[in-house]
Amino acid sequence: MFTNEFQLEGFVKNLSPEQLKESIEFFRITNPEKASEMERQIEEYNSNLLKPDSNDIQVEDLHEIPSTLNNSREPKIIDSTIEIVAPIVLKGKNNISKTGKKNVNVSKDADSIFSNAFDLYNKNTVEIPKLLNPFLQKVGLASLVGTSDSGKSTFLRQLSLAIVLKLDTFLGFKIEATTNKVLYVSTEDDANAVSFAIKKQVDYLFIDNATDPSEDKIDLDLKLLSNLEFMFETDFLLEKISEKLELEPVDLIVIDAFTDVFTKELNANIQVRQFLNEYDQLAKKHGCLILFLHHIGKNTLRSAPSKDSIIGSQAFEAKMRVVLELRPNRFKSNHKDLWVLKANFLDASFKTKSHEIKMNNDLIFTATGERSEKTQTSKSANPLLKDKVLELKSQGLSYRKIEDALKGTDLEIGKSAIAELVKKSTSSKG
After folding, report:
1. Do the Cβ atoms of 299 and 160 come closer than 8 Å?
2. DSSP letter string over 379-413?
3. Per-residue pLDDT tens for 363-387?
4. Nearest CA to 88 among 118, 134, 124, 57?
5. Are 22 and 70 in contact (CB under 8 A)?
C-alpha cells in the first residue's frame, strides 16, 4: 500500500479524520484487501509512535468508520497510492485542542528546545565555521547565481572535486571540510554530460599536480572520486536526500538547479520559503551546507551585480545565508567575476570588489589575483580600452578611424564613447 515510511507518515499527518475515514471506506468498496492493508500499516505506525511514552499522541480509532461514502470527496489515486491532500487530526487525552490542533508537551523536551543567552555566550563562537573560507559557511543554505552559460555548473563541479580529492584550497581559498564527501543533484546535465566534464576536469587536476614544481604538490587518489555522488532523478528528492544523510553524512549538497526541483509558483513568497525551510532544517539536522544553483535575468548584466537581479521571489534570497554571483567579465573572454552579493557573516569590504577567475579549455577555473569594482559597468571603464584609445589617438587617428580599428575586437567601442573617453583623460591630466 505505502511503499516507504515517508508516504505513510505523510498520509497519517496530512488527512483530516473525515478524509481518512472516507479513504478507507472507499477502498472497502473498491478493494477490500487494500483497505485492510491500509489499516494495518497505520495501526503499526501508531503503535511505534506510542513507544515508550504512553502520553504521546495517538491516531484516532480507525474502527469507527461510517457505512456510507460521500462520493463527491473520493480520494485521488496516483500510481496506486493516495495523494496527500490535507492535514490529519491526532487524538489523545491532553494532546488535542477543541479545534483539532495538536498541543505540544514543551516541558518534556524543554532543554533541547530552548537555549539561554548565558550558554550561548559561553560557547565562545568568535567566527562562523566555514566550508570554503571566507565565503561559504559549513551549515545552512547558500546559492550561486548567474545567467545561463556563465559557468555555474562547471564552477560547482570543480568545487565538489576539490572537496572530495582533499585539496587544501579552491581558487586560493581554504577548504575546511569534515567528511570530504559531496552529493550533487544534477537536473540540467545527464550522466553523459557530467562524465565528459568530470573527466576533463579530473585529468587536468592530476596532470597539473604532477607537473607542479612547487612544494605544494600532493598525492591525489583517484579512488576518492567515489565520495562525489550524483543524482539525476528528483522524484521525492527531499526524502531521498534525508535517507542518504542518515546513512552517510556529507559536507556539501549541490542542487543544480533550483527551478527544476521547485515546481510551484516562483514568485510566491510563502511557497518558496516553505520549500526552502525543509532543506534548511535538513542541513541543520545533519550539519552540512546545501547550495542551490539559481539564475538571474540576462538584462541585469547591464547593471551592477545585485541580489535584486535574482529571478523569482525575494524569499529565495532572504532564506540564503550566502549568495554568490558568477558573471562573464565584460572585458576579457573566458574570464569571470565572482561576486559576493550576500554573506551575513562578512563585512561590506568583501562585497565591493569581485574576484576575477579564468576558465581554460579543460573546464578548470583558476584565480587571476585581480579584482574588479562594481562601478566598472561600462566599457569606457576598462583600463585596457582606455590605454589603446589614447595610443591610437596619439598616432593621429580620428575618432572614426579609432572606431574602425577596434571593430570586431574585445575593445570594440563607438565613436561617441571614444570622444568621451579622450575628453575625460584630457581633463584629468589638466
Report:
1. no
2. GGG-HHHHHHHHHHHHTT--HHHHHHHHTTSTT--
3. 999 999 999 887 555 566 677 788 8
4. 57
5. yes
CA distance 310 to 312: 7
> What element of type H or E holds 322?
strand 322-328
Which of 44, 38, 35, 51 is CA-nearest to residue 11? 38
Q: Bridge partners of 324?
A: 144, 340
Asked whether 156 and 150 are in contact (CB, 8 A), the reply is no
User: What is the bridge-based pairing of β-strands 322-328 and 289-295?
Assistant: unpaired
Residue with cell 550524483: 230
Whether 155 and 365 have beta carbons less than 8 Å apart is answered as yes
Q: Which is it for strands 140-146 and 322-328: parallel, antiparallel or unpaired?
A: parallel
Rounded to 5°, angle at Cα 68 from 66 and 70: 110
Nearest CA among 403, 203, 412, 392 for reference residue 425: 392
- Are 245 and 286 contacting, i.e. CB atoms less than 8 angstroms apart? yes
Cell of 414: 563607438
pTM: 0.66
Give how far Cα 407 sits from Cα of 322, 419, 423, Å.
40, 16, 21
Q: Are 356 and 337 in contact (CB under 8 A)?
A: yes
**pLDDT greater than 80 at residue 51:** no
pLDDT in tens, 213-228: 555 556 789 999 999 9
Check: CB of residue 252 under 8 Å from CB of residue 289. yes
3-state class of 331 per DSSP? coil
Within 107-262, where are the H helices? 110-113, 117-121, 152-164, 191-210, 237-247, 258-261
Q: Enter the C-alpha cell of residue 78.
A: 496516483
Q: Which among 344, 275, 317, 313 has a CA at the least distance from the CA of 136?
A: 344
Cell representation of residue 222? 583517484
